Amino acid sequence: MEVKKLRLNNFRNFSEYEIKPGEGVNVIYGDNARGKTNIIEAIWLFTGAKSFRTNKDSELIKNGESYARTELEYNLKGRINKSSIIFGEKKSVEINGVKSVGGGDLVGRFTCAVFTPMHMDIVKGCPGDRRRFLDTSICQINSGYLKILKEYMRVLAQRNALLKDIQYESALLEQLDVWDMRLCDYATKIREERQKYIDKISKESEKIYEGISGGREKLEIIYRPGLDFSEDAETQIAKARANDIKYGTTTVGPHRDDIEINLKGISARSYGSQGQQRSCALSLKLAESAMLKEETGSSPVILLDDVMSELDRGRREYILKRLGENQVFVTCCDRPEDYADISERAELKSFYLGEK
After folding, report:
1. Is 207 helix (H, G, I), strand (E, B) or coil?
2. I need a labelling partner for 128 at 20 to 30 A (CA). Which of 190, 245, 334, 339 fits?
3. Structural domain boundaries of the chain?
4. Neighbour-count burial for 269-285, b at 16+ CB within 10 Å, e otherwise
5. CA 176 to chain centre
């Protein structure tokens, strides 16, 4: 997987911008507030996922403009693909000249892994942040998972609405069985997909953390499902029904899943230092890229936003060596020569974002 060209029109702070990156390490540098992260964000949007910075498409449009357009050309296994996304009153997508009904059609076509300071929430944040990381990662290798996830959330919302109404109208209790059956079906599939993915990514992230830390600490990733594997989903949801009615919400299910991240058997979230937490999150994101390659047969594009400058030379060198087969985008305020010295890549291109 290799980005050949990215073009932006009225996107964030850019009226017009075009970049033709190299196949190796690409360093996007300049002072703060010049739009370095905006370029990373624009590339990421072509995975079909939401922006990692906002849930509002309107925020992607340059102030004073009515629309924004992003275009991406990329090489996948020798074939050049072209996609475009227009953000306006409605979002429209075009893939290789064919208009698409929605952004979901982008999922699984262009794959990349992104790491920004915001992804520290994988370790430091709430369970929802870790579930979001899991789901976004799985969607890139299993486009059908997105549909299952959306259906689960739709059924969950309907069931929760019914639970609230039952407290005032007991006759509605009969309808609960129908929603329980649908919920169990989707919940079981989500639990299985998440467990399968965590089994793989935990082994890979543990090896990566060992390299980043120089073997001084052991990383451990444990799946804590909202539905235990010791019983089937139907039994657990049936047991929880009384509590669900009492509290007016579904108390068990994948929407309660979490990932436990430990160092030396101790919670990295509660007791890890800032550096340890950063290394844990980075290990998981690099493991994600390894999973993408394993499942798709193509090395994903790697987006590292304002991350490398906070790592010492040894850790930078380890990461860039590990990403030797990937096209990499690095944003920083540093001189690009600093990366040329340690990357050992035949090609390093730099792009300066200066005064507009």
Report:
1. helix
2. 245
3. 1-111+298-356, 118-296
4. beebeeebbbbbbbbbb
5. 34
DSSP state letter for 61: B
CA distance 134 to 177: 29
Six token digits for residue 70: 């992003």
What is the DSSP secondary structure assignment for residue 347, as one 8-state letter?
A: -
> Looking at residue 12, what DSSP letter applies?
T
Averaged in consecutive runs of 10 residues, what is the pLDDT profile of the chain (356 residues)? 96 95 91 90 91 91 95 94 92 89 78 91 95 93 91 97 90 90 96 95 94 91 92 93 95 96 95 92 94 91 87 82 89 75 69 74
SS3 percent helix, strand, coil of the chain, rounded to 5, is 50, 25, 30
Superfamily classification of domain 118-296: RecF/RecN/SMC, N-terminal domain (1.20.1050.90)
Written as one string, the DSSP assignment of 178-200 is HHHHHHHHHHHHHHHHHHHHHHH
Cβ pair 302, 243 in contact under 8 A: no
Regarding the domain delimited by 1-111+298-356, which CATH topology (the fold level of the hierarchy) does it fall under? Rossmann fold (3.40.50)
- The pTM score is 0.87
Burial class (CB in 10 A: 0-12, 13-18, 19+), 205: buried
Tell me the CA end-to-end span of the chain in Å, nearest whole number: 31
Q: What tokens were used for 190?
A: 């989500």
Using CA atoms, how far residue 70 sits from 59, 80, 226, in Å, is 14, 17, 39
pLDDT on residue 13? 93
Closest by CA position to 20, among listed 96, 72, 81: 72
List Cα–Cα distances, 124 to 32, 108, 152, 219, in angstroms.
25, 28, 26, 15
Q: CA torsion, points 46, 52, 55, 59, in degrees to nearest 10?
A: -80
3-state secondary structure 271-286: HCCHHHHHHHHHHHHH
One-character DSSP codes across 136-181:
HHHHHH-HHHHHHHHHHHHHHHHHHHHHHHHTT-GGGGGGHHHHHH
